[in-house]
Design brief:
The complex is a heterodimer of chains A (175) and B (456).
Chain A lengths: L7 E6 L2 H13 L6 E3 L5 H6 L7 H27 L12 H27 L19 E6 L7 H10 L4 E5 L3
Helix pairs in contact in A: 3-4
Chain B lengths: L13 H13 L4 H27 L14 H25 L6 H25 L26 H34 L3 H10 L7 H34 L11 H27 L9 H32 L2 H13 L3 H13 L7 H4 L2 H28 L14 H24 L5 H4 L17
Amino acid sequence: MAKKSISGVAGIFLTEGKVVNAARKVREAGYSKLEAISPYPIHAMEEACAIKRSPIPYMTFLAGIVGMLVALALTYYTSVIDWPINIGGKPLFSLPAFIPIIFELTILFAALSSVGLFLYLCGMPAIGVPPIDKDLTCNKFAIFVPDTDKNYNFETLDRMFKDLGAVEVKKVTEF
Amino acid sequence: MLKRNQLVLGNKTLRDVTNDICEPIERIPSKGWMGLFLAAKGLFIFYILTIAVVISTGMGLLGVNHPVAWGTMIITFVFWVGIGHAGTLISAILFLFRQKWRTSVARTAEAMTVFAVMTAGIFPLIHTGRPWFDFWLFPYPNQRGPLWVNFRSPLLWDVFAISTYATVSTVFWFVGMIPDLATVRDRAKNFWRQRIYGVLSLGWKGTAKNWSHFEMIYLILAGLSTPLVLSVHTIVSFDFAVSGLPGWHTTIFPPYFVAGAIFSGFAMVITLMTLVRIGFPKFKDYITIDHMEVMNKIIMMTGLMVGYAYGAEFLIAWYSGNIYEQYVFFVSRAFGPYAWSYWIMICCNVVIPQIFWFKKFRRSIPVMFVVSIFVNIGMWFERFVITVTSLHRDFLPSNWGQYAWSMYDTAILIGSFGMFFTIFLLYLRVFPAISIAEIKPVLGVGRDDHEHGGGH
């Protein structure tokens, strides 16, 4: 998906403690569009970056309801309206026997829609964007501030990152 | 204070973890892997040919006939679906229970689920007899008049359950792998490797927002998979329990099947993990003896649960006062012409796992490997006992008969292992077999220095 690429500046850190601290400081300095990149989830980071709770569960609930209704409609339409047939003396609308179908489709809709929303929220797939540093999925951490942030100034950020313990500061042309 | 055992041995750094786990997919395969792969692939090709012969000639090549109309296909289908359940138990249910030890085995167990369900799915499709009409199993508007599938049939519930389970398990497995695929992408030394893993990782960046959504989707999928996995084997058991046949028509079937599925699945996880530990010695620091011991405890516990179910069936047959029920259990099943299969089942599933009461055996790799093989054999025989001994003698003695086991039954059964192991061995060489991103936060567990993320 061709999203417009963003450029900016990134500080590379070597420990989890330093990067969480740096994220908090950078955000408190007014850079609200910062991104903290780590090779694994860091729970303190959500608070440090002021990240809101993910909205995915709402989609799960809604899609689950839709799946349930779709299954109910499918079983009702086919068994009662379109092809009413007496099977083993059971009523045309034999709800208990339809529950397994309704349950499975509820799960299926909920799961696939949630994954769809997850991909959308993460801007994926976004193939071919080079990583800021190849070790960010291995053992290093980074704070990235895009140049669209309102107080963006390379020199200030460069100094700030280094004061906070960054081992390297990089100009990023594509993120 | 009770000190927790380390989940990861050897005081690894973050880079060590990445290197250790990515190593098997970045080097030339070992001789051991090549040997196993060629054997598995040979068996797989044999399996494909067998299926081709069975389909082109007809189901008559197998032993199924009146009165035993369900045979190897259904038995082996239930066997493989059951194997898959332990993977979902480890990846979803133990995740919800916050069992951190599951981390290092979850990826491979979930892969086992996906491959076992793929292997299982083939059987009912062939069992229909005319597999080229299998799309009739799905409800779709058609030109054969208003003609729809029968939603009141457990066999159709099974179509929905198995296809949903296969889809959701695959998605769960793949979503959990995205960050690790990005790791492999960033380590790639050549263009094509970088390109292929780049596409597979969907451009994962690892920002804090990404991780927040990632953890949420993982939790949601775990939460959805948990009732799903219980429903799948429940519905498989309905295939039997909803009928009126003595030996099948019991309310204990759903929990009994689920417990048996987890039992057999954990045995398969142990079988595979002992082999993986031999093949990739560095994984011994991640999949430690402690992990194996915990799984052996689960095998012993679920073994006792199926043992209880075997006993309960007899009790209810006696208590019901129904002569047909009593005949099936007290005469035909335990002492009839198929008594040998019943006692193999009891021996493998109830007696042999009791060895795990002793800590020494629980922590011995050769012992657990042998026991896991016995459990796998025993669980196949459990399905054989349920299917064949119930069918072969029912209400009327004039309606009795034996299952005419043929060499094609054997070929189909053995061949399915070729399919499973071929895919599994390829998986070990293509995807990181342990979750890199999930291991890193638990590195600190049980260590004295809590430098790495102890506070999660």
